[in-house]
Amino acid sequence: MPLNGRWIYLAVGAAGACTAALHGAGWLGVVGMLCYVIWLRYVFRPSWLKPVFLTAAVAVIYMWVLVFDAANQADELPEEGSAYAVISETPQVDGDRLRMPVEIAAEGIQVQAFAFLQNEAEKQKSEALKQGMECYMTGEFERPSTATNFHAFDYKEYLYTEQIHWQWFLEAIPVDCQPAYTWLDYLEHYRQAGVSQVASLLEDPFAGVAAALLFGERKLLDPEVETMYQRLGLIHVLAVSGLHVGIVSFVVYRVFIRFALTKVQALTSLVWLLPLYALLTGAAPSVVRAALIGMLVALALRFHWKLSPLDGLGFAALLMLWADPYYIQHIGFQLSFLITAAIILSRGWLFEKKRNYLSQLFFVSLISQIAAVPVLLYHFHEFSWISPLLNLWFVPFMTLFIMPAAALSFFIVFIHPSLLVIFSPVNSILSFIHDALITVESWRFGFIVFGQPSLGDVFVLSLATAGLLLSFECHRRVMFIAWSGWVLLLGWPAITASIDQTGKVTMLDVGQGDSIVIQWPQREAVDVIDAGGIVSFINEDESWREQSEPFEPGRDVVGPYLKSQGITKIDRLIITHGHWDHYGGAFHLLEAFDVRKVVYGAVAVDEPGEQRFLHAVAEAGSEFIQVRAGDSWMRSDAPVQVLAPIGHETDLNDRSIVLQKTIGQMEWLFMGDLETEGERRLVQQERALEEVDVLKAGHHGSRTSTTPDFLEAVSPEAVLISAGRNNLYGHPHEEVIERLEMNEVPALRTDQLGAVRYTFQEGVPGKFEAARRQKEVTN
């Protein structure tokens, strides 16, 4: 190998080239390239030849990625929405939803197909669909939507990296299905059959863990349990990776030798079998990496090559990025290679003879978590500092107890399935441990919330992380300086937030509901008005329609947005009234955030849901405050005025808390779900209703709100409307939109624009922006 001992340097450059090409080079790409050249010059001094060669190779990779990405363009679709298509991957059926990527047979175009199942019979037929079937499908094609909330998961971008540019919403489930299987399809069928066998013969939660360890399939895991593994930094123990590949390779190799194969024959066979094992276990980036490295080691032994661990890792990364540069954006790829590289680079002092097993295990866990911090913060905005301690005992438990039990259960299925009863104690122990870990996950102090870092922040933090890991082999003074700098970088967002003069008002897209987050300058306070909530229309006799983890605005929108802003404390959670689409998401906020005060109207609490919510407030230890017209509290040296309710309203919507406040030189009026009668009362009250600049329309733009008289009285410059796309109620109603257009008042709607955010500073005109970037309005 002409680059023997140098593949890791080329792999680092290739990763940077892929990132720069896909995200736009800019100043960060230039700085990154300069750092790379300086690093190569330092490593290979006094030679110039190798740095020049490696830099040129990275430039070629950069241009290749640009060409690769430019070729990823949307194809023309059939004029009609009907066609025969081949199912590309195993269909996913969740409740009354069917989702699967398919390839339109005639055009060879990949699209993402969806179907809403009408009855249980359709669900059973959908569950019988397999990868490789060619079926006749009818529906409408649509472009994927961009993210509708700031810093949220972008499904369109995800599909783009899968080279899919269209969604196909099917009118009915696929029909006239015929097998068109390839050998790859048969492998996937065998994998899914194994998962089904595990699901039918083992009990939860052991079944979910066993399916993950044996087949790389996590769909049997309870969503709450899987989230717990992710947040506590334990998800790697469920990933098929180097340990699994190493064990399988060793066992297969010894079996081949036992059956009289020569060493050369055994190693050659291993090279062919490892890709099959990767496919049978889901071909996630971690197992692909491990399989490639296993193949390289086998080839090195076969042909007597010198292959260092870093060379193997670097060459595997290069192969994966050359095959698909979009791997660089995959969190599994990032974590797998970063953590493995960190452990390899630290092996010199990590496995010193003076260290005992527990000490080595602790430092392996610590190094892994430190190396993962930049990636975790970029994707999840938080990390758990408890994770190294949990890994200290959980990794041995899984490796020495659960993993062998999962493998043994697989073989017992072929001997006598009735013997699987011996795993009942395993299931009980695992259930107990999961419950304990879920409790640990609920400890808010166990997590450090960083906020959404930019690529520049990640770059700087990655350099600091590399310096910290290198300092482990240096003098204690150097290590202290490295630790201090690293901790300072982690705390920097909190420091800057406390002096930042910028404030934000964000109307989040929570579907058919309301949620508004107000961040006051210098992080004086964070107030949240409502938290969204999805009303379920599933009847008791339609349990088959229930999804494993249905959309929940508090968990899926409001909470992640707050974390993306580095927010862990809510000063006031204001629930305008007792409708689920306003307080349903608050249950999650009470569990996941330090909610100091909960504000509710001084009205009768009649509904069972409201009473359950008040119970949750008491359990969370938040102060409960009831307000009525005439009350107020201070923000930014000015009062937040409560204009309603009065206290004797009977209709739930008219019990809404109405707030008025000057924010960023603009007068704001937040209406909750106040309707006609409530608006009339505000107009006619003794205290004259002042004109406002920004009106948050009542009741999602319903015709029962934003009446002509009220609109004339407040005369807004802009109206915010929170409504779900294609909602069942038709909000916002056409007559309201026409009324606003007649008055030349722009309507900023979440169903069209996604989340809408107003950014302001005292004494400086503010600016509106939309998450979907379709419209921008400035004051």
TrEMBL record:
It comes from the Bacteria. It holds the Pfam family Competence. Its main location: membrane. PROSITE patterns: PROKAR_LIPOPROTEIN. It is found in: Cell membrane. The chain crosses the membrane at residues 7-40, 52-71, 232-253, 325-345, 357-380, 392-412, 419-439, 445-471, 478-495. The keyword rRNA-binding does not apply. GO terms for cellular component: plasma membrane. Residues 512-725 form the Metallo-beta-lactamase domain. GO terms for biological process: establishment of competence for transformation. Keywords: Cell membrane, Membrane, Transmembrane, Transmembrane helix. InterPro entries: ComA-like_MBL, ComEC_N, Competence_ComEC/Rec2, Competence_DNA_uptake, DUF4131, Metallo-B-lactamas, RibonucZ/Hydroxyglut_hydro. It is a multi-pass membrane protein. PANTHER family: DNA INTERNALIZATION/COMPETENCE PROTEIN COMEC/REC2, RECOMBINATION PROTEIN 2. This is Competence protein ComEC. It comes from Salsuginibacillus halophilus.
